[in-house]
Amino acid sequence: MHLIKKKKIEKSFCEKILENESAYPVASREEGLSFLISFFNDIRPAKKERHKADERLQEIVALLEMHPAIVSKLQQAVLTQLQDANLESAFTESGIPLSSGFWDELAGKVKHKILPEEQDKNDFVYVIDRVFYKKTDFIWVNAIRRSTWISFFELLQFPLREKDERLHSHLMDALTVLSFQVANDGLERDVARYMTPFRSRQDNPFIMQNSLLHDLQNLPGTNPDEVKAVAAKLKAALLEIEDEIEYIRQQQDSRGTSLKQSYTLLILSARIERMLILLDTIDNDERFDIGRFVDLFRIVVKNENQKHSIRQFLSQGVGYLAYQIAEHKGQKGGKYITTTKKEYFSMWVSAMWGGLIISFIAIAKNVLGKLHYAYFWQGFWYSVNYSFGFVLIDQTGSTLATKQPAFTANAVAVSLDSKKNRNQPDLDNLAVTVAKVIRSQTASFIGNLIIVFPATYFLAWAYDQLLGRKLLAGREAFLLLQEQHPFQSLSLLYACNTGFFLFLSGIIAGYVQNKIRFSNIGNRLTQHPGLHFNTSAERKGWWARFIEKNGGSYAGNISLGFFLGMASNIGKIFGVPFDIRHITISSGNMAIAVYGLGFENIPARYLITVFLGVLGIGFFNFLVSFSLAFLVAVKSRGIQLRRYPELIGTIVRYFFKKPVSFMLPPKSEQ
């Protein structure tokens, strides 16, 4: 007698059909939908077995090849959904944001997130939502290889090729709606002014495609050769529009972009893709691109699963704008990465000059702290002091170590850029880039620190000699030293706040620089009517060039100055423990406190602990800033880090192979 009953293995849906075919009718729309739901339930893997989805579909395809009766039922079930359904919204709306604008679309997403809109049962999107009803279905649908889906749809002899008049009418209506939308998008100012110049308006592919579609609609169906010829011209016009979209995006590196332009190009790309698929079904050339249809199928399933996802919409809509911000940051980030020995030691010198400037900023900040202002105004003057110092560092070509991560993170992301690398990224080259970034960062940290402490100590001594009293002494000096202590204060937590502000100031710098280019600020200044009579053309040109070159840097440096300057006072105003710790400023504060107390009055162990705390502050400044900047860079480029599980391993292996390269440039590197 068996004490444990074996779990009965449930038969698959296809096996049930083979046992009793009549039990699964597909004559009506309701029966066909029920059949499709059961069929895809059979393919859907458990959450822990999503990696087996491709293998499961391959098994079903093999089974279908052996049993044409099941294929016939599946074809009929699909046709019952297509023939009587409204296909327009599935092709013209599903996954494509509306032209009402980014913010209006976002508001609609929020509204429908709270209270979903009513669905029309005659809409084909309703079928998609019923068949792929789980919000995570798109994960396993996309996990199945493209070639496997192609095999599946080829086996069905894809029903969209059926010559059903009602189906043809639905497809043509959807094509017409998309055509007018594409023409309207192409005439948007943010698109039209950035396209390549055309000889005449008739040469504009956005207008041409709409005219060709009108010709296609008026052709008699009895002349297939003419249909093929006009459809071929229409396809060529659509492909020309795709070239225009790519041209505009390539120009964004030098001319900048806007949220509206990025959003419009995103919509245009999706609509062109839909039009090409629809043309494949009605052009009478007997060549249907199933691969393109599979791409659409995956996109529609994903978009329907995530149609109320605010996070997905923001990620998709802001993606190209974030990409351009990262690009403008990356263009400046190149100067922070050293390759040769000459560049490496130049980084040391540059960082030493930056450390010297910070020494004066640290002294000035503590002088300002002795003045009795209201919290807001004290924070304001702290901010002006910091901003002046950061701008001075930038304009003198000096280096501040903590400003590097927000810019160099983009250089690392470029090695994984799915928009620039069509093939598998070179992870070995990425490891080399990481080594360059780390040694450059180390050089700038050392360059800053070897100057900041002694220079600030000397300035504190000079203050004492000139005014006859120490800048800080006694309890004030001890409290300043204690603020840098890693265990007796929240300095390491506050260092994370600084890392976030460093990242945010980098984003602001990239955004402003992008805006200056996109809005043609330089040219507009030279043509400004208010400056026409009282400013020479030469001076206007100088100001225009200066703003084009430095506008983003000034915005980033000033914003960082105010973030750091106002932080502690905002904490005091609201009575919360909120402050910042910046490695170079903390090093300067440590020097001031040490001079005020005297080396002989500070236990060596305590002093060493504070010094290690300052290094810890620098570590968290770097870690938070670099991590956030890197995540934004890879996200905006469409990079999925989970596709590169060997990434960390490659960098670690390179470190053990060439550990010196993480500190010094190799002799062979030129």
Automatic annotation (TrEMBL):
Q: Which UniProt keywords apply?
A: Membrane, Transmembrane, Transmembrane helix
Entry annotated with the keyword Amino-acid biosynthesis: no
Query: Does Plastid count among this protein's keywords?
Result: no
Entry GO CC? membrane
Q: Which Gene3D superfamilies match?
A: Glycerol uptake facilitator protein
Q: Where does it live in the cell?
A: Membrane
Q: Give TM segment ranges.
A: 344-363, 375-393, 445-463, 492-512, 554-574, 606-634
Membrane topology, from the record: Multi-pass membrane protein
Specify the protein name: Recombinase
